[in-house]
Amino acid sequence: MASATVGLLLEKISSKDKDYRYMATSDLLSELQKDSFRLDADTERKISQIVLHQLDDPSGDISGIAVKCLGPLVRKAGENRVVDMVETLCTRLLTGKDTQRDIASIALKTVVAEIASGSVAQSVVVSLTPKLIKGITSKDSNMEVKSDCLDILSDILHRFGSLISPEHEKLLNSLLMQLNLQRAGVRKRAIQCLAALAANMSDELLARATNIIISSFKNTSEQPEMTRTTVQMIGALCRAVGYRFGPHLCEVIPPLIVYCQNGEHDDELQENSLQALESFVLRCPRDVSKHCGEILEVALYCLGYDPNVDGDMQKDKDEDMDGEEEYYDESGNEYSDDEDVSWKVRRAAAKCLSGVISSRPEMLFVLYHKACPKLIERFREREENVKIDVFNAFIDLLRQTGTVTKGSRDLSSSSPLYMLQQEVPRIVKSTNRQLQLKSVKTKVGAFSLLKELVIVLPDCLSEHMSSLVPGIERALSDKSSTSNLKIEALVFTRLVMASNPPVVFHPHIQALTNPVLAAVNERYYKVTSEALRVCGELVKAIRPELVQSPSFNFIPYVQPIYSTILKRLTAQDQDQEVKECAITCMGLIISLLGDQLKRELGVCLPLLLDRLRNEITRLTTVKAFATIAESPLKIDLSCILGQAVLELTTFLRKANRALRLASLGTLNALLIAYGDKIGSSSYESIIIELSSLISDADLHMTALALELCCTMMKDKRHHSYAGVVVKERVLPQALVLVKSPLLQGQALQTLQGFFTALVQSASTSFDILLDALLSTARGSSSGGGPASKQAFHSVAQCAAVLCLAAPDAKCSSIVSMLINSVENSLGQDATQLLSLLCLGEIGRRKDLHSHINLEGVIIRSFQSPSEEIKSAASYALGNIAVGNLSKYLTFILSQIDNQSKLQYLLLHSLKEVIARQSTDDAGKVDFKGTDVQKILALLFTHCQSEEEGIRNVVAECLGKLAILEPGKLVPALKERTLSSSAFTRATVVIAIKYTIVDRPQPIDMHIKPCIDSFLMLIRDEDRHVRRAAVSALSTAAHNKAVLVKDLLPALLPLLYDQTVIKKELIRTVDLGPFKHTVDDGLELRKGAFECVDTLLDNCLDQIDPSSFIDPYLLSGLSDHYDVKMPCHLILSKLAEKCPSAVLAVVDTLVEPLERTVTTKMKPDAVKQEVDRNEDMIRSALRAIESLNRISGDASSRFKAFMNNVVKSGPLAERYNAVRHESDAVVTGDIMDMS
């Protein structure tokens, strides 16, 4: 802006006309806010002077705009100018008139909020702080000046507390004096300042301040007002400094509990005491652990504190109302007393209780016994705000239950779910009363509670629907109901209908239908979309079984539901969410009620086709067509089938992955149901598109594409034609895919089915296909180089499936050819390797005893110089034994005894036999008793082998065999936990790990009584045994947590001890020119942290996170790279599940995290070291992002770390990438849930 323009503005600002001054000041603000605006020294001086002058303008509007000008001005003015302005404003604040003081106070707050951190901020706070301290302590300052100074000082301390550390002691002394003033407002502001100061103080100064406050707290002769102030100060101090206040809890908690119990005549003191206790629970979780029981008791006591209502009278009144149809509305006729503030005590108690519930998963059992009944009783609270907090506390209890049980349906008497189930009748009875009140806020809270209840315990309300339906009906039909109430009622209805059998709702369909359909016609889109989702559940409920004579007469509801949804489907001017819900609902209606809507199909199906062609709604419509195609009613789609198939085929080439996946599934369903009505040209178009989708870049999509190919080749009408096109277009891609090292799982199984279907379609010769398949692994000229190890296994499995699909004679000739290849393929490792694997895969599925000396041919391959061929021969021998145990198992056992040099390979063969027996149910042949005895004797002999590889194989064999023979094996394994050989102890512990699989097994009942004998070896003197015990504990916690939950109180301290660096396990190896340090405890520490990570997922209620974080997790965060990585994962998980425990020590987490993310590699570091360091930094940044999500303003040190290290400099770009990655994961989870 030109100097002349500035002069003109300044001239107008000096005008006597108020309107001129207002417009000129407003124009100046606009100019200052422009990024292009720059200040020279003279203009800067003039503008700063005029803005300061305008602050004193008699017009409040003008002075208000002048205050707004200060923000952009201090960001653009020089450092000295800003300091001069601040000093001028401070002088006005301390010595000016009342009007000047008020506007100067606002102006200073604006400056403090707007200045950027750096040298300007340093100069401003250094200049301003001594003057504010003088304003606070001066005897000449009135209370208003003190209050304003304290407000500004609080803002300075929050933003720049660390910049004025030399003034901390002086500040502390000044602020402590203010706590003794008579004016409550000044004391309150002093408390805020002290809390902000404490967050930045040194430990020494904080200890001194805390001791002074606690000494004052113990002074029983203080006036009640001062006692309340001290209690408020203690609570604020704890909230500010967190774990640093922990050592003082033993001194302050007992008096606070006394105040809560005996403070009937001082409600404010009770409230402050409860708030302080809540801060201890949330901010000092480790030190407060031993006091949690007392805090819980006092919170429950105060939750029922209501001196104006007699508890017995209230209980009698509730019982009298039970039989009445319309419950007494307390909200309109409650006891009225302006001086009654007891509700604040109850509200503080509810929040304190909520803090205990959310931060103490290990107390869940106690909470259900003590807190749950009391909370349900207090649903009748007469003060609405308190009632909502009671609801929220109970919702926290439900959520904590869901977090701890994590999808488990364990209803044993010790399970939280069982205890919750016992309380369901009381919960329903109490919430029903609340749903009958007039208060909308109360009803929203009640539905929110019921919704959480259904999420945690889905089928618990089936017996109570008759009492809940009237409340739902009223919430949806009442004219006073708000949108929020309707949404909560509809969400609850949808959840409860989805989680209970349809027959539960048949008596209530009539009552629910009209209100839900009315909600579909609501104007607010969120209500409409939720009502449409409920309609979908309603349709499922009215016709759960597509039988000729249904138990429920659904026909009267078909037309009303169809007409209402059709109206929404045809409307164009509505929200995207409503359109999608209407499409989904119409798909359900057609699939379940289509036989009753034959005349209407000509209207609704073209509408759906139109939505399929719309880019916005096509994905939802694709899924709707899949629902229709899968309907057993075989809906007549002739009017749109060809066009729909054409559209779906074009979608296969779109970039949207979700659309392609959905289209593949829908096409498969349509071809299965309507293949005879789809033309050959459509088949060809689909196959052409499928050929481009088959690759290892997306194995899930590949599996769906191959499945669709199989469907087309199995179609009786088109199988020959489809087989020819598939052979031309898809087979080349499949042969490339089979070589992929990534091929596994569902994609590999589907590929095997694809080859079988291709042969059976008669379009491809068996010999040609088998030769093409085997050539891919041998590395033909067109294939380009040798295949990967995984490719050999994939090809072998596909070849075995092909052979089994061929006639027996053909299969036998192929086996003979493979045997010949093994014998005569000298120097051709690929051919021999593939032949051995093929023999193993065929032998596992088919008895090959008719081929003479097969086992001799295979065992000769054990002598091969190639390790891969030895491994393949071992694999083949084990698998052919599965096909004929009586012949080949005896051979393997005899060879193990006789061939000492081949024991490792032969044990691998034995492992294959045992593993297949324990996992394959189809065609299972049990071991003979004599076989088991021989195997056991053999395995136990090799438990003490010096070779770790042999011991590991033996352990796996013992574990898998124990699954088959638990009665014999488990006692034998337990007996050997007392062996004098460390190798034997380690082997049997690893063996027990292999017995714990994720499916229920008969062995579980044998393991549970004695698993402690194995896991307690975590305290063994040998590190190998301890490592094996940690690994077994981790497996048990992952697969069957119920086996170890009761042992965790004893196991956790031992497990935590394994995370500590032990100097006795660190040794130095002298390598001549230099020395190398070896840490033998590294793997053990890494395994221990990984075990804790697993326990946090499945046994959270048994873990006190605070005692683990400090010192064990803190130690891990400063450990070796391999230990840091799992520690970062644990920290992210704890931030999500136990945020209060993490926030309590977030300051101490900053140092190890900062060291990790600022690690610099040496100039001569190799690429592998650089990559590892990059991975470690990204891992740490993910943990930091998790902390940032929950931190808020809890820690100034963490905030400074984020601003100065993470969000600026070289880390900023990497942090943003991690944050966007995290946001994408969260969004993906939400989409999956929807």
Protein model, in words:
There is one protein chain. The chain is mainly α. Helix content is 71%, strand content 1%. It has 61 helices and 2 strands. Strands 1-2 form a two-stranded antiparallel sheet. α56 (1121-1137) runs parallel beside α59 (1167-1191). The longest helix is centred in the C-terminal third of the chain and has 25 residues, at 1167-1191. It is globular. The model is unreliable at 320-336, 780-785, 921-925 and 1226-1234 (pLDDT under 50).
Which percent range describes the beta-strand content?
under 5%
What is the number of strand segments? 2
Low-confidence segments, given as residue ranges, are: 320-336, 780-785, 921-925, 1226-1234
The helix/strand class is mainly alpha
Entry summary:
Helix content is about 70%, strand content about 0%. By secondary structure, the protein is mostly helical.
